[in-house]
Write a structure and sequence with these properties.
mainly alpha
Length: about 425
């Protein structure tokens, strides 16, 4: 009986109610929500459903995503030696883009090999040198010849499988790109590539690592803060996207980095990754509410908050597939102008719901959820309960922890202070 009493009480997440509230929150502050998500696409590489659709469309026209400078040089030399047309080369080398071959030929004639080093990068798509998919393929290929044979085999039977999948894979793993750049550097060492290539790879890894920790991770937490405030305040301003930079704290960056390491380690178990993905999903929201929380406590609290809810969280994500498809057929426009902010607004609603249950049930670590003004509905509920218990003396406000993040009041419309 004691075990049952200690078990956290989980309720059913009402998807219709969550989505209705999220829609209302986005609509009443539509321009700011779009702008915040738009910034996150370009700076943080978030919202893969948008970038991958635009990139996959562009990938049909930009073969630079698939071939590096050495490949291009070999292709062009074969073209010139055997007097082949662009169409013949495209078919022979599985490029599926005669225009790209023509462009490479013109660049080669004008600038030589150096002209083949410049690559077009699509809408947050990555070129071959920085592709996560290519880094993974290189790591598992015993030789370049084996890799090319595998790619040709898949492309022949699955209509450009490797070139298409690389775009989706790159966007799905964009938040972990620094890990793949490290993999590339290690692969270069093991394959005994030129010293300069290895040095460049390690420098690029260090740059990506620093950018991810101090810019991307911080912005991800700031974005969550924006949408949490947007739930409570009528007109939260875009400037709230920089609240952590004004707070001058690195705790969230550290916490997000440690969380990504845990997720990477769990990815090796394959089966454990999706479970831990949802277990850690509340970490950025927890950091957005309490930037000074210790990393271990934030991760542990996220695990506690999501106990009994992982399957429901998966079903919420599953219910958003339709929007992903609409974003696909519209080349990402639906994502930019609606589904991106809508999806994050739903995540914010989920966090607030799980937060309420955590505080009501007083789960381990709930004291860290210390921003009493973040959810005014819950505050009113707790005040009413305290008033009833104390015979009309509502001292719940004094008993709650003090807010650690300055929150603008409604008179300032949720803007900057």
């Amino acid at each position: 009986m004691k075990k049952n009493e200690e078990k956290p009480i989980s309720i059913k997440l009402d998807r219709k109610k969550l989505k209705k509230s999220a829609k209302g929150n986005v609509r009443r502050n539509y321009i700011a929500c779009i702008a915040v998500c738009f910034i996150m696409v370009f700076i943080a590489g978030e919202y893969g459903s948008t970038t991958q659709n635009v990139s996959s469309y562009d990938n049909a026209h930009v073969a630079d995503l698939k071939y590096d400078a050495e490949d291009k040089e070999e292709i062009i030399e074969d073209m010139m030696k055997n007097d082949l047309t662009a169409e013949q080369v495209s078919d022979k080398w599985q490029i599926n883009n005669p225009d790209a071959v023509t462009k490479w030929l013109e660049s080669y004639k004008k600038y030589g090999v150096d002209g083949l080093n410049s690559k077009e990068v699509t809408f947050f798509g990555s070129s071959n040198d920085t592709s996560n998919f290519e880094a993974l393929a290189d790591a598992f290929s015993f030789s370049r010849n084996a890799k090319e044979k595998a790619q040709t085999y898949l492309n022949d039977r699955l209509n450009g499988f490797t070139s298409s999948v690389s775009v989706y894979f790159d966007n799905a793993t964009s938040s972990n790109s620094y890990q793949f750049s490290l993999l590339t550097a290690i692969t270069n060492v093991l394959s005994k590539k030129a010293t300069w290539d290895t040095i460049v790879s390690f420098v690029y890894f260090l740059f990506q690592l620093a950018f991810t920790i101090f810019i991307v991770n911080v912005l991800l937490v700031c974005e969550r803060r924006f949408f949490l405030e947007n739930h409570t305040y009528k007109k939260t301003k875009i400037g709230r996207l920089g609240f952590l930079f004004r707070e001058r704290t690195l705790h969230p960056a550290k916490t997000m980095f440690i969380t990504s390491i845990y997720q990477t380690l769990w990815a090796f178990t394959i089966i454990g990754y999706p479970i831990k993905y949802y277990a850690y999903s509340m970490v950025p929201f927890i950091c957005a509410e309490n930037p000074n929380i210790k990393s271990k406590k934030a991760i542990k609290l996220s695990i506690n908050m999501t106990k009994g809810y992982k399957w429901q969280l998966f079903k919420v994500d599953l219910s958003m597939i339709g929007w992903a498809l609409l974003s696909g057929i519209s080349f990402g426009l639906v994502g930019v102008f609606w589904s991106n902010p809508y999806t994050t607004a739903i995540d914010a609603e989920i966090y607030l719901q799980l937060r309420r249950e955590a505080i009501r049930n007083k789960i381990e670590g709930y004291e860290e959820l210390d921003d009493k003004l973040l959810d005014l509905d819950l505050l009113e509920e707790l005040m009413a309960a305290e008033t009833a218990e104390n015979g009309g003396n509502p001292d719940i406000v004094r008993s709650l922890p003090v807010c650690t993040v300055t929150v603008p009041d409604e008179q300032e419309n949720g803007g900057d202070e």
